[in-house]
Amino acid sequence: MASAAKPAPIPGTVIFDGDMAVKGYALNKMCFSFNRAENRKAFLEDEDAYCARFGLSEEQKAAVKARDTLALIEAGGNIYFLAKFVGLFGMNMQDIGAQQTGMSVADFKAKLLAARG
Amino acid sequence: MARIIGGITTSHIPAIGNAITRGQMEDPYWKPFFDAYPPVQDWLEEAKPDAAIVIYNDHGLNFFLDKMPTFAIGAAPQYLNDDEGWGLQPLPPFQGDPELSWHIINSLVEDEFDICSCQEMLVDHGFTVPMSLMFPDQAKRSAIRTIPVAVNLIQHPLPTPARCYKLGQAIGRAVASYEKDTKVVVFGTGGLSHQLDGQRAGFINKDFDLMCMEKIVSDPEALARYSIHDLVRLAGAQGAELILWLVMRGAMSEKVKKLHSNYHIPISNTGAGLLLLENAA
């Protein structure tokens, strides 16, 4: 886990380090299971039972229920595993980029285009 | 003797794989991106490498947090791609080269890089998207022998840029000491700036990317001096993938010649960079 002094935080960024990997282990393990179609189906059929099977914390269960990416990250979710979760609802990285920044998807895409300068 | 005949960098964004599957290469959004690739494909066609060392990161297909190697190298006769959960169509298997893999593994450990060897290894979009971009033709894609090198970019601590550059140098020495006549190309995949997670999602840093595109050619040691934290700050949380480019660059000779380059914003959430390098005489 964290040992060396951590450098200054970067606003809007959670570093997925040992502390977060421990905190998010159950949540990420559930998301990892979504690589398989039968597991995606099982989640969509009975979400509560599926979360219980992986031993999610209350914070994680609430974030899953809300489909709230920022809360999922706060609860220890890693973005690459969360991608498999949001994919269940047809959301891609631009959809959750918009969600996390409080923008419409169109505005989020416009922001990316604006990076051309 | 084996020798490295070229180094190539390319982004490995999954949306590229989807665009290829859907045949969207001529769409206005995609055309400026895909139009940059034929010169590299032509070079590969001409140079006919026997093997490709593909430096990439696994995004939760083969590795989970239960066991997370910092550096893992494939030593399998073939590598399978599989369902990543969110809809990218898996590609047919890729050919391995166990003999060259084991030579590199032996040489790296002798050189004090204590890597993880994998006799079975699923390869994800970080590996398959670059392969599709370099070899659009399935027959050619399945003909070239591959050696996947996976670098941990999921869970901090990530290996430092300096360490990755040195790993590349050690891979270069390993290839140079392989006795079989083999032409090897090295792909450094991923990047450039992007951030997928947090309120900072959508962060792209064009100036930093363009500086990296130049320095990776002329002064890679300048890039190797950054910390991972610097890269996250300057290139976004996933922009730390620049370390994969540094592995590739380390495997090349000190002086290289740039044959082709392209930079395009945005592909999905990312500044996409392409470079084709040859060792300078």
Structure in words:
The complex is a heterodimer of chains A (117) and B (281). Chain A has 117 residues and is mainly α. Chain A has one domain (18-114): Dioxygenase LigAB, LigA subunit (Protocatechuate 4,5-dioxygenase, Chain A, Orthogonal Bundle). Chain A has 9 helices and no strands. The longest helix of chain A is centred in the last third of the chain and has 10 residues, at 105-114. Chain A is globular and about 45 Å long. With 281 residues, chain B is an alpha/beta fold. Chain B has a single domain (3-279), classed as LigB-like (Protocatechuate 4,5-dioxygenase, Chain B, 3-Layer(aba) Sandwich). Chain B is 37% helix and 22% strand. Chain B contains 11 helices and 10 strands. In chain B, strands 1, 2, 3, 4, 5, 6, 7, 8, 9 and 10 form a 10-stranded mixed β-sheet that branches. The mean pLDDT of chain B is 97. At the A-B interface, α2, α6, α7, α8 and α9 of A face α10 of B.
Strand content of chain A: under 5%
In the CATH classification, which architecture of chain B applies?
A: 3-Layer(aba) Sandwich
In the CATH hierarchy, the third-tier topology of chain B is known as Protocatechuate 4,5-dioxygenase, Chain B
The biggest beta sheet of chain B is recorded as: 10 strands, mixed
| Main structural class of chain A | mainly alpha
CATH topology call of chain A: Protocatechuate 4,5-dioxygenase, Chain A
| Strand-pairing-aware structural class of chain B | alpha/beta
Q: Helical region count of chain A? A: 9
CATH secondary-structure class of chain A: Mainly Alpha
Number of DSSP helical runs of chain B: 11
Largest β sheet strand count, sense and barrel closure of chain A = none
Quaternary structure: heterodimer
Strand segment count of chain A: 0
Q: Specify the overall morphology of chain B.
A: globular
CATH level-two architecture of chain A: Orthogonal Bundle
The helix fraction of chain A, in percent, is 55-70%
Q: What would you report as the Rg of chain A, rounded to the nearest angstrom? A: 16 Å
The first-level CATH class of chain B is given as Alpha Beta
Name given to the CATH homologous superfamily of chain B:
LigB-like
How much helicity do the residues of chain B have? 25-40%
Q: Which outline of chain A best applies? A: globular
